[in-house]
């Protein structure tokens, strides 16, 4: 839960929002890491030789796609066409950019990739006193994957009672991402590095959802002074209502896209629900099919790389780094250092 002393707005916030307002549409490139699941030999299967392992494609690869920024979390832009109930204004604010996506898209799985225990694989494997020293990296990768997510689609993830696929249908995530914004008019590039969290319909009803709520609230703040706060409004503010408001802010045609056939599915294969259709406008904000597929993703930044190219003779660059409580800083402060471009 958030501390009694709310974090201060970061020094980059106002300028970033001003630049975002010049972008039509507010596009950014989202970079993630894709893990290619390899078969791990088990039982009496013969382990592949080192040359055979080297011939395999890399176990992970970069992925990038263009997304639309939907504003900052808890600060959704008003739209007179949006009939969704809204949260009370001025209760919360944040510095966390959002975008929307379909849970059936490949990138959603990539937002859970950080669960793999890379530290276990890279450090213990080099320790001469460790029993894992003689194990190759692939084995350690599979061990970490098995502990954190389950080896197969149907295998239960330890401690959750859910398979990896079931978990991805709910709230969670936490993978490392990078979002690149190029504001053409001011000629400034913003590279935002941090972690992404997926907000699903279970955001307030599941243990995973409540964990995400607590984490995001730790990076949110109450803009009002304590004496000006309204306890009734604070109690009414809901993550689930905010997700519905995001859905309502989309155009009817965009809402209907969440009823489309599964993205990436071959068109020669059958689709559940009868004949597949595209371009279905949707007015119902609680349509069960569309809402089951709709997700809001919140990026929690830890570092911003700001490069100003407006003056070709004197480009400038700053690195903004989030520093938590301690280290001589207040709650949630940022440190800014100007570096050579």
Net shape: globular
Largest sheet: 8 strands, antiparallel
Taking all Cα atoms into account, the compactness measure Rg is 22 Å
Which regions are unreliable across 5 or more consecutive residues at pLDDT < 50? Answer: 114-155
Q: What structural class results from the helix and strand content?
A: alpha+beta
Kindly report the name of the CATH homologous superfamily: Electron Transport, Fmn-binding Protein, Chain A
Counting DSSP H or I runs of 4 or more residues, the number of helices is: 11
Q: Helix fraction?
A: 10-25%
* CATH top level label: Mainly Beta
Mean pLDDT: 81
Separation of the first and last Cα atoms: 38 Å
- SSE pattern, N- to C-terminal: HEHEEEHHHEEHEEHEHHHHEEE
Give a count of the beta strands, DSSP E runs of length 2 or more: 12
How would you briefly describe this protein structure?
With 341 residues, the chain is α+β, with helices and mostly antiparallel strands.
Write up what this structure looks like:
The structure is a single chain. The chain is of the alpha+beta class and 341 residues long. The protein has a single domain (12-35, 58-118, 164-264, 281-339), classed as Electron Transport, Fmn-binding Protein, Chain A (Pnp Oxidase, Chain A, Roll), CATH 2.30.110.10. It contains 11 helices and 12 strands. It has helices at residues 13-21, 50-55, 106-110, 118-123, 137-148, 164-168, 207-217, 231-236, 239-249, 252-256, 288-293, and strands at residues 27-35, 60-68, 93-94, 98-102, 156-157, 162-163, 172-183, 188-199, 220-221, 294-308, 316-323, 333-339. The strands form 3 sheets. Strands 1, 2, 4, 7, 8, 10, 11 and 12 form an 8-stranded antiparallel β-sheet that branches. Strands 3-9 form a two-stranded antiparallel sheet. Strands 5-6 form a two-stranded antiparallel ribbon. A hairpin with a 4-residue loop joins strand 7 (172-183) and strand 8 (188-199). It is globular, with a radius of gyration of 22 Å. Mean pLDDT is 81; it is low at 114-155.
């Amino acid at each position: 839960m958030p501390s009694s002393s709310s974090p201060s707005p970061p020094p980059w916030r106002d300028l970033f929002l001003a630049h975002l307002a010049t972008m039509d549409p507010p596009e950014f490139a989202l970079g993630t890491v894709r893990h290619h699941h390899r078969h791990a030999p088990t039982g009496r299967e013969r382990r592949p030789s080192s040359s055979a392992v080297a011939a395999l494609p890399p176990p992970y690869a970069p992925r990038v796609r263009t997304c639309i920024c939907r504003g900052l979390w808890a600060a959704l832009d008003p739209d007179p066409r949006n009939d969704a109930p809204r949260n009370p204004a001025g209760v919360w604010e944040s510095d966390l950019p959002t975008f929307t996506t379909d849970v059936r898209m490949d990138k959603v799985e990539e937002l859970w990739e950080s669960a793999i225990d890379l530290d276990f694989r890279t450090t213990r494997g080099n320790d001469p006193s460790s029993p894992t020293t003689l194990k190759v990296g692939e084995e350690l990768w599979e061990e970490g994957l098995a502990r954190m997510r389950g080896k197969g689609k149907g295998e239960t993830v330890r401690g959750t009672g859910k398979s990896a696929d079931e978990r991805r249908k709910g709230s969670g995530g936490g993978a490392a991402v990078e979002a690149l914004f190029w504001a053409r008019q001011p000629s400034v590039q913003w590279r935002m590095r941090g972690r992404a969290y997926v907000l699903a319909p279970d955001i307030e009803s599941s243990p995973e959802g409540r964990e995400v709520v607590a984490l995001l609230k730790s990076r949110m703040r109450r803009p009002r002074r304590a004496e000006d706060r309204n306890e009734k409004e604070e109690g009414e503010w809901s993550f689930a209502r905010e997700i519905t408001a995001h859905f309502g802010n989309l155009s009817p045609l965009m809402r209907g896209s969440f009823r489309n056939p599964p993205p990436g599915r071959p068109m020669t294969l059958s689709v559940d629900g009868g004949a597949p259709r595209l371009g279905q406008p949707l007015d119902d904000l609680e349509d069960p099919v569309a809402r089951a597929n709709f997700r809001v993703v919140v990026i929690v930044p830890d570092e911003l790389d700001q490069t100003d190219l407006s003056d070709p003779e004197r480009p400038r660059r700053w690195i903004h780094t989030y520093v938590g409580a301690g280290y001589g800083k207040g709650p949630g402060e940022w440190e800014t250092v100007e570096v050579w471009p």
